[in-house]
Amino acid sequence: MHLKSILNFVEPHQGFVYGAVRWRIHSNCTVLDIEIRPRKNRLPVCSKCGRQGPGYDTLPVRRFEFVPLWGIAVFFLYAMRRVNCATCGVKVERVPWAAGKNHLTTTYAWFLARWAKRLSWKEVGQVFQTSWDNVFRSVKMAVAWGLAHRNLDNVTAIGIDEIAWKKGHKYLTLVYQIDAGCKRLLWVGKERTQKTLRQFFKEFGPERTTRLDFICSDMWKPYLKVVADVAGKALHIIDRFHVMTHFGKAIDKVRASEVKELKAKGQQPVLTGSRWCLLKRPDHLTDKQTVKLKELLAINLKTVRAYILKEDFQHFWRYKSAGWAGKFLDNWCRRTMRSRLVPMKKIAKMLRTHRQLLLDWFRAKEKVALGAVEGFNNKAKVTSRKAYGFRSFEVLKIALYHTLGNLPELEGTHKFC
Ligand SMILES: [Zn+2]
What fold, for 157-239+370-386? Predict the structure, then answer.
């Protein structure tokens, strides 16, 4: 089979034909150069308005990188024509294989962007011998295309989440769709203020907002306020993952202050290295951690009491009816308020304040993928940690949309990967 037949099969271009194919060695690498020519009597297309016009002149040959073949870099060589457009004046022509000044062909950019979902951007660059910049620009192009072509009309449930970003308490607000059949990242915003979330609803639009049945978030005041203001019709739920995160932080506080106390009294710091035993679910502990936990439980420490209160609270989520769950919640809060553990008492107060939102969880849990927020939160953290290249908000945002946005992709004539 002729190479040109293969090219015409994977990448046909209307109005153009493949010409001579040459290969050469360039700094120890084999490179394949493939010429492209316009079809005879086919006028160039104006890149501004998309209409055909008479040719004006021809520019020097440009190289466009295409998908590599058998470890050989592949370039299209083409001399761009300029159009004498009746409407726009003299403009460079539009070609189907590349956009604007991009020296990567559109097919190659999509190819790199797809691989960047499976490998880190750096790895993609290494494997395909291209720069980090090229990979980044390809991902950016894919994200921009995906955002412009996604459909947001079927969103009935969203989860609002925040992740820490950079050192020093910088936050991002993330909004996910958590419908049982469709889970994806919808939006990324800087900070976690009222303004942030209002911006989301503004971009999302009032019509779509009225179609929301469920909104799930943390007990974070700015979020609660905005949701009540903007989407009061939807059922607002506090999700399990965020509630349990508060417990983790409270236990950390109890433990840290107890370690200090014990040290001041000159006692053995039994709590050192115990953090993970106390934060993990019992069934997730390793053998060594189980032994440590047994040791801890044998002594009546404040930390242990806090831990037991947390584990006891897990029962809350197992109720079938909101009525019984409510009784349990009241009882748990009463006990905790007598515990003399300040961070735990804070949680009890918070849960009491948001009692209704918590109980609404039971009304929504059958209909919405409530666990999704936790899964997304983990993935978002991994993505933000993965590359130190994500120093700027713009880059991190693109990476998050690319990995979690489930964005539509341009369907080419041929699937390369
Ligand atoms: Zn024009």
Answer: Nucleotidyltransferase; domain 5 (3.30.420)
